[in-house]
Amino acid sequence: MPLVVENGRVARVGATAELFSKYPRLQESARAFRAKTPVTVEPARLLYVQQREFAATTPSDSSVTVIGSADATTCHLVVVRHTGSGAACLAHCDGSDTWAEVPLIIKAVTSLSSTAKNGRLELHLVGGFDDESRTSHKLSLNLLAAFQLQQEDIYLETCCITELNDVVVDGVHRPVVYGLGVNVKTGEVFPASFLVHGPAEDLRSARTFTGGQVRRNVYDPSKEHVKIGPCRWSPNRDMAFWLSQDDETILQYLSTSPMAEPPHFVQHIKSTIQFLLDHPTADSLFPAGEPQVFHRSPRGDWERVDQQ
């Protein structure tokens, strides 16, 4: 029974409302979760995950205490944790390749838990809202279905998604929880915001903006290194058009949920486009085709490793 709630297998559902009706405990836990005050996570010992990325590690990691991600509107934030080993993985899923992404998330945790004699896999799903296009609803159902297909028993502990993560402000639907953190030392999963989204924030955003490879594992827990790339994109001077557009136009055409984006969304898009204009190709960013590698510096931030 791959996906479990209250020790019973979760049947395939055609709507999230059907799931919540069958399992009132999920409603209760979602309401409790969304009522928590978001924690502002300091950069030291933070491993930040951007859209279409995931990362996993264990409590013994000396460089990471919290794995986190934010700015999820229709996207969903996924945490899988093994209660025996304490290994945890966080993914920022946008629906690009859900069916291939979920097995990689599970593998990332189970491969770090091979020596654990006891314990189980627990799942926390947070994100989406009651958006007009029902993009969130589709992603919620696909994620649930993908986890149901896994061989391992997976216990659904938190399911604060779509209509249970929705609030109406001035007549506009938007998410309650935009960001999530998991403390890999304690196992706590909590609403969060983040002061930094690095390392290599613009590079990672550019990689996603240009539609590059999805399902990116950005962390090597054995070396405690963040690894980015290599990746490719083609020169596109036409993107400069967007830098002269007003906020409303950028939101309308470059967002899946224009009315629900966080305040910094437009500036983030413009920064990403400027980065792509400054780097028409990615070749110079990855000398000899090697990834950019970062380790934790004595100051507590991520520092580029010289690989020469």
Characterization of this structure:
The structure is a single chain. This protein is of the alpha/beta class. The chain has one domain: 60s Ribosomal Protein L30, Chain: A, CATH 3.30.1330. Helices cover 25% and strands 27% of the residues. It has helices at 16-22, 24-34, 98-110, 135-148, 201-209, 247-254, 265-278; strands spanning 3-5, 8-9, 39-41, 46-48, 53-57, 66-69, 76-82, 88-93, 121-127, 154-161, 166-169, 172-175, 180-183, 189-194, 216-217, 219-220, 225-228, 292-296, 302-304. Helix 5 packs across helix 7. The protein is globular, with a radius of gyration of 19 Å. This is Protein N-terminal asparagine amidohydrolase. InterPro entries: NTAN1 (IPR026750). It holds the Pfam family N_Asn_amidohyd.
| Assembly annotation | single chain
Shape: globular
**Strand arrangement, major sheet:** 2-1-10-9-7-8-5-15
Instruction: Give the distance, in angstroms, between the N- and C-terminal Cα atoms.
Output: 49 Å
Pfam family, one: N_Asn_amidohyd
GO molecular function, one term: protein-N-terminal asparagine amidohydrolase activity
Protein name: Protein N-terminal asparagine amidohydrolase
InterPro entries: NTAN1
